Amino acid sequence: MMVLMDAAATAKQVQDVLECIEAHGMQTLRLPGDEHVAIGIPSAIPPELREPLTQKLTALPGVDHVVQISRPYKLASREFRRQDTVIKIKGVEIGGQRCVVMAGPCSVESRNQIMEAAETVKRAGARILRGGAYKPRTSPYAFQGLGAEGLDLLKEAGEAHGLLTITEVMSPDDVPLVASHADILQIGARNMQNYALLIAAGKSGHPVMLKRGPSASLDEFLLAAEYLLFHGTDSVMLCERGVHPLDRTYTRNTLDLNAVPALKQMSHLPVIVDPSHGTGVARYVPAMARAGLAAGADGLMIEVHPRPREALSDGAQSLTPEQFANAMAELGRIAEAIGRSV
Ligand code: PEP
Ligand code: MN
Predict the structure, then answer these.
(1) What residue ranges line ligand 1, CB within 6 angstroms?
(2) Which atom of ligand 1 has the smallest separation from the CA of 277?
(3) What is the span of the domain harbouring residue 260?
(4) Taking Cα atoms as reference points, which of 225, 221, 224 lies closest to residue 241?
């Protein structure tokens, strides 16, 4: 159960609600929210108390309404907020009618490479530039990213081409630096349940895109998002990027498109689909990007490299600028068919 206070509720009114709940022997949890103060009741409520307690709390001054939240996650749930969350960053809306495309190389490799990538993705209609500076690589011998230098280059390229930027942060200690360089923090699939990182990213208040772990259930995914919301950011995007496949012969992961309508039902947060990591194969990316939009995604993340064969990471799944421009034209037609735009 959760009590949502009026936007204008006083501190005394909030206190009275807390005391009323505690007088019934139950714990309270103050949840931050952008519009209202919300008070959660994490303890189990005896069934016979549910109705009288709801009535009593609803009647208290300063209470807007009381909602029953059956899900383990609260702030991330559709029960907590019925309307879709629309994240606004420097004039770009994520979660609104217009779908957003984030595109760029897996890794920032050089000034030339990220500048070229930015120019081509911008021209094709992307509004957010991606590029990893801190790379989570399976092998310690693989390219690890340019680190702080990569952040500078990504920022420069984004500013030069009027694109927002997104990049991965892997360590809680790096959150302030990454947040000062990029518009959106990316928390990678491998770190979805790195709670220290989730807490630090949440506390920064910066927009975050959380990628689903390759073996995570949707409840686990949304509970990870709950950490971000609980610790202070209200701008969280969920990214489906493929789960462990049954068969790695043809694809790297299995893009779980069921997750798109399911997450949209379970949560009010925008959903992004990443067909690049979801397939691992450039030639399959456009089809799965189209499918992602058709399934109801609010945006896409697509890897694009000026010369995929020279890429230092994920070249096999990266589109050339030309392939990306073609894919964008097709995405425009899918979006139109479902009453959206790209
Ligand atoms: C990436 O976006 O380059 C990346 C490493 O993604 P994921 O965390 O989904 O593997
Ligand atoms: Mn990648």
Answers:
(1) 106, 132, 136, 188-190, 211, 241, 277
(2) 9
(3) 87-337
(4) 221
